Amino acid sequence: xxxxxxxxADLDAGYGDFQALYGLSLQVxxxxxxxxxxxxxxxxxxxLRAVMGQVRxxxxxxxxxxxxLSGVPTHDRVRRGMGLVxxxxxxxxxxxxxxxxxxxxxxxxxxxxxxPEVLAVFPMLQPLLKRASSTLSGGEQQAVxxxxxxxxxxxxxxxxxxxxGLAPVVVHxxxxxxxxxxxxxxxxxxxxxxxxxALDVADRVYCLLEGRVSLSGPPVDLTRDAITTAYxxx
Length: 234
Ligand code: ATP
Prior knowledge:
Elements: E1 4-15, E2 18-29, E3 33-38, H1 44-51, E4 57-64, E5 67-68, H2 74-79, E6 82-85, H3 97-104, H4 115-121, H5 138-150, E7 156-160, H6 168-176, H7 178-183, E8 187-191, H8 195-201, E9 204-209, E10 212-217, H9 224-232
Parallel strand pairs: 3-8, 3-9, 6-7, 7-8
Antiparallel strand pairs: 1-2, 1-4, 4-5, 9-10
The structure holds adenosine-5'-triphosphate.
Residues 15, 18, 20, 38, 40-46 line the site of adenosine-5'-triphosphate.
């Protein structure tokens, strides 16, 4: 593995009295593409949100680039090079595609991503730049959401269920962009319901089950049976 960029160690996290993650550990090397799989409610979104500082950590540590993130607010994590494409996209619906992208670039770190660079990766957005984002298809909106996150020039991009609710052909077009995103050295963590897709794109996979890591490793090392057991717990 390359030097560790993100190190989650023994993480406990949850909401109010409810604990969603139990002693969860995960390492992401610089330049790696990691997929996190698991059934509904397994804790995938909670993990990404905890990494971004949006869910309270009760135990364990999250370190980024060798530094403990305890007490570091979300905006500071973004400034340090972490970016999340949230589940459900969360675009500003009345703002144009261009404006949504510009908001992503507000206070940006120096780096490769500009609006022309985003359009080079997602050419379907070019004719839509002046359109309100609410008028776009789901796939187009997802491309804007990814582009908006890239505009901050993150070193680590967390993608939460990019494919949710989209037709397979649209999902394929979005995932086609991944190599171009990774190309600049960007590290990527995808949460993905589609196991085949996850195994296809990832250097390593983590499967979560009821808030714990139930299986991890490079796709070539994981049998279908082992994945099924880790995914469903049966
Ligand atoms: P999904 O594919 O459904 O998004 P997931 O693996 O991302 O699933 P999480 O969304 O992280 O799972 O949810 C983990 C657990 O935490 C679930 O039991 C869920 O009901 C609970 N949970 C998630 N968000 C909240 C919240 N805001 N308040 C209380 N409980 C929550």
